[in-house]
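Forum: Protein Structure Q&A
Topic: Joint prediction for protein chains with partners

I've read a bunch of threads here and the consensus seems to be that you should model interacting components together rather than docking separate models afterwards. I'd like to see that in practice. Below is the full input, 452 residues plus whatever partners are listed. Could one of the regulars post the assembled result?
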Amino acid sequence: MERVPLQQKVLSENDRIAMELRARFQERGILCLNFVSSPGSGKTSLLERTLASVPNGERIAVLTGDIQTENDATRLQRFHFPVKQITTGGTCHLDARMIERHLADWPLNRLDLLLIENVGNLVCPASYDLGEAAKIVVLSVAEGDDKPLKYPSIFLKSDLMVVNKVDLLPYVPFDVNTAVNNARRIHPQMEFIRVSCLSGEGLDEWLSWLQKRRNAQKLLHHETVC
Amino acid sequence: MERVPLQQKVLSENDRIAMELRARFQERGILCLNFVSSPGSGKTSLLERTLASVPNGERIAVLTGDIQTENDATRLQRFHFPVKQITTGGTCHLDARMIERHLADWPLNRLDLLLIENVGNLVCPASYDLGEAAKIVVLSVAEGDDKPLKYPSIFLKSDLMVVNKVDLLPYVPFDVNTAVNNARRIHPQMEFIRVSCLSGEGLDEWLSWLQKRRNAQKLLHHETVC
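Posted by a regular:
Agreed with the consensus. Here's the joint model:
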C-alpha cells in the first residue's frame, strides 16, 4: 500500500480549499483567526470575553467546532453575533471543506472578523489549514509549562500563545517564563499574552493585540483593492 | 475515491495486532492498562504516584507515548521499573504496532502489570485498541465538567474515569457530580475516582482499584491455564 501519496493527496485537497478561502477573506478584508488548544483550555471562554467586549454593531462572526454537542454555540450566541456550530461527529479537527460549507449561506461582505474555534486537540488541527490569517494557541496553566516541547507542531504554526487561567498560578506547578521559553525554542517569533478569562486579567492586552491585527488586515485589504 | 474500505482496512490491521497482544497478555497473566487524556491532565503524575507506592520487586513496566521529547520516560525511570518512551514523531495516538515493536525485546514473562501512557489527546486514541484490558481516562478538573459530552467516544471506551487535580476544585468552575453524570450518560457503567496527584488525596482508592484489577487478571490467567 502506498501511504504517502494518498496522504499528500488528502492534504493538498485541504490546502487547495484553504487557499481559496484565504483569497476570499483577503479580498473582503476579513481577518480570520483559528483558535487551537487542548480540551478545556478556555477557547470558548476567551471568545465569550471577546464578544462581550465589542459593540453589537461590529462585523464579527464565529464558527465553533466540536466532536459532539452544540454547547459552545449556545454559549456564544448570547452575544448576538452570528455563530454556527460545526459538529464533526468524531473527526478530531476542523478542515477547510467544513469551513467552506458552513460559510456557504453567510454574507461574507458583512464581516470583517471571523473567529474559528477548532476542536479541542493539541495535535491534529496543526495539519489542517483553514485559510486563517493566524492560528492562536491557548494554553491553560493547569496543563503544565512543558507542553510546547511535547506538541511542537501546533506551537510552531501559531502566531500567538495565550496563556490562560493565570488566576490558578498560585496553585499549580507552572512557570510562565519556562512556557514562553519552551514555545520560543520551537517558534522564536512566538508572541504571548497571559490572561485569566475568570478574573479578566490580561484581557485588555489580548483585545489590543486583536485590534492591531484587524487594523493590519484592513491596510492589507486596501492595498489589494487599489 | 472509496474512503470507507481503506479506513476499515487500516483499523482491522490495528485490531488484528491488538488481538494478538491481548492474547499474549492474557496468556501470561499480564494486566495491561491504557491511560488516555487531554494534554496535561496528569497521566504521568498518576503513574509517578503509582510507581512510588509499590515495592521495587513488583513485576511492572511502563510504555509512555509522546509526539516529541523523552521527558515522561525520564520522570518515570526514577522509580527503577522498566520504562520505555515511544516518540511518535507527529502521530496523534499510539497504535498496536508501536506497542508490539516496543515490547519485542522485553521479557514479558517477567511482568504482570503493563501501564501504557497514551499521547495526550482526548479524541484519536479512542480509535486504536492497544490490546489493553481497560482504558482509563484521566480528566483534570481544570478542563471542565462538560468534557464527557463533548468527547464521548473516549469516555464510552474507558472503564474508569480518574478525576484529577481535585485540589483545584475551590478555584475552578467544576462540579464532580456533573462530570460523573455526564460520563454516565455516555457510559452508564463508568466507575470514577477523584484524586489529587499533588496532595495525594484519593490515591488509596486508586491503588485499591488497581489491586482489584490485578487480582482479577490473575484469576483469569489461572482459569485460562487450567
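Helices of chain B lie at 3-27, 43-53, 71-77, 96-103, 147-150, 152-156, 176-186, 203-225.
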